[in-house]
């Protein structure tokens, strides 16, 4: 499961590194679309668009469903959300650590002040 | 305003950012209200380090913390209650400005952590950078780190449940 989240990072980064694929995601954010619609919109061959959608699908960013002859694509954000959740949890841990570090630094500052005063005396 | 802030026991809280720079890099940044030499001290003296590295609020507790902070020196951290260990070697130690260490608990090819301390106007910008040597290393190390995290959060969940239950009872 955890492994899957990390593998997902890689796949998502690769998927998002391409301008057309980012455009497709943006488009699908507005409305579901067929591969034919997307190919037309992005001035591409069906085969080319199928490849892009395939990459997005593998990264878990898009899901497709074939009804009759038409394959409809829609956003599938599950994996991206999981990644965001992982980052959030990681940030929570560091936030908690750094709150403690703040306290330690404050204490060292106070101690330094006192020591400095002692030295001057 | 300034006078009021000075009288407060805790200073204004700074923001922690976590950013996934690429599939091999993770970067954490935070500013501390103190000079770099003190922040550096808190990262390099075990008795200070152990006070903040395992926050109680996250259900973490260190059983032991050994740090030989010099180039080639080793560190080893063991968590309670399961003695999960994190260990490695310091590659660079530049007082008050830079620390680099390996993370070897996942075997060879673990990530390398670089922490830089940059002082500006009495404050210190801390940047922690974790670089994984390859996708495979990231998968392996990521599993360990994330497993530890999952465990930690499971503990936190339990704690919250207990707290929730006691609140519910009263």
Please characterize this protein's 3D structure:
The complex is a heterodimer of chains A (121) and B (170). Chain A has five helices and three strands, in the order H-H-E-H-H-E-E-H. Chain A has two domains: 75 residues, Arc Repressor Mutant, subunit A, CATH 1.10.10.10; 43 residues. In chain A, a hairpin with a 2-residue loop joins strand 2 and strand 3. Chain A is mainly α and 121 residues long. In chain A, helix 1 runs antiparallel to helix 4 and helix 3 crosses helix 4. Chain B has one domain: START domain (Alpha-D-Glucose-1,6-Bisphosphate, Chain A, domain 4, 2-Layer Sandwich), CATH 3.30.530. Helix content of chain B is 34%, strand content 36%. Chain B has an eight-stranded antiparallel sheet with strand order 1-2-8-7-6-5-4-3, with helices on one face. In chain B, a hairpin with a 6-residue loop joins strand 3 and strand 4. In chain B, helix 2 packs across helix 3. At the A-B interface, helix 1 and helix 5 of A face strand 1, strand 2, helix 2, helix 3 and helix 4 of B.
Please give a handful of descriptors for the protein shown:
heterodimer; A: 121 residues; mainly alpha; Arc Repressor Mutant, subunit A; 2 domains; 3 strands; 74% helix; rod-shaped; disordered N terminus; B: 170 residues; alpha+beta; Alpha-D-Glucose-1,6-Bisphosphate, Chain A, domain 4; 8 strands; globular
Number of strands of chain A: 3
Q: Would you list the SSEs of chain B in sequence order as H and E?
A: HEEHHEEEEEEH
Spatial strand order of the main sheet of chain B: 1-2-8-7-6-5-4-3
Label the CATH architecture of chain B: 2-Layer Sandwich
Q: Kindly provide the radius of gyration of chain B, computed on alpha-carbon positions and rounded to a whole number of angstroms.
A: 18 Å
Concise structural overview:
The complex is a heterodimer of chains A (121) and B (170). Chain A has helices spanning 2-16, 19-30, 35-41, 46-58, 78-120, and strands at 33-34, 62-67, 70-75.
């Amino acid at each position: 499961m955890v492994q899957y989240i990390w593998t997902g990072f890689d796949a998502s980064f690769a998927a998002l590194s391409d301008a057309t694929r980012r455009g497709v995601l943006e488009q699908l954010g507005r409305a579901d679309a067929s591969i034919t619609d997307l190919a037309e919109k992005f001035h591409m061959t069906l085969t080319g668009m199928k490849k892009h959608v395939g990459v997005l699908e593998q990264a878990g960013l898009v899901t497709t469903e074939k009804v009759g002859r038409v394959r409809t694509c829609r956003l599938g954000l599950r994996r991206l959300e999981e990644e965001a959740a992982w980052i959030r949890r990681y940030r929570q841990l560091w936030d908690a650590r750094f709150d403690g570090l703040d306290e330690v630094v404050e204490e060292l500052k106070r101690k330094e002040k006192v020591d400095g005063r002692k030295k001057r005396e | 305003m300034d006078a009021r802030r000075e009288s407060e026991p805790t200073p204004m809280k700074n923001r922690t950012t976590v950013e996934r720079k690429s599939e091999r890099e993770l970067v954490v940044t935070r500013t501390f209200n103190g000079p770099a030499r003190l922040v550096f001290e808190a990262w390099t003296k075990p008795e200070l380090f152990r006070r903040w590295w395992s926050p109680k609020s996250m259900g973490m507790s260190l059983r032991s913390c050994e740090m030989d902070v010099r180039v080639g020196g080793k560190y080893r951290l063991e968590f309670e209650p399961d003695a999960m260990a994190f260990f490695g070697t310091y590659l660079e130690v530049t007082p008050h400005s830079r620390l680099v260490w390996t993370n070897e608990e996942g075997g060879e090819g673990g990530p390398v952590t670089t922490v830089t301390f940059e002082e500006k106007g009495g404050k210190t910008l801390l940047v922690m950078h974790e670089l994984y040597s390859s996708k495979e290393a990231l998968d392996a190390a990521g599993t360990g780190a994330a497993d530890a995290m999952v465990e930690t959060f499971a503990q936190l969940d339990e704690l919250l449940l207990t707290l929730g239950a006691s609140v519910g009872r009263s």
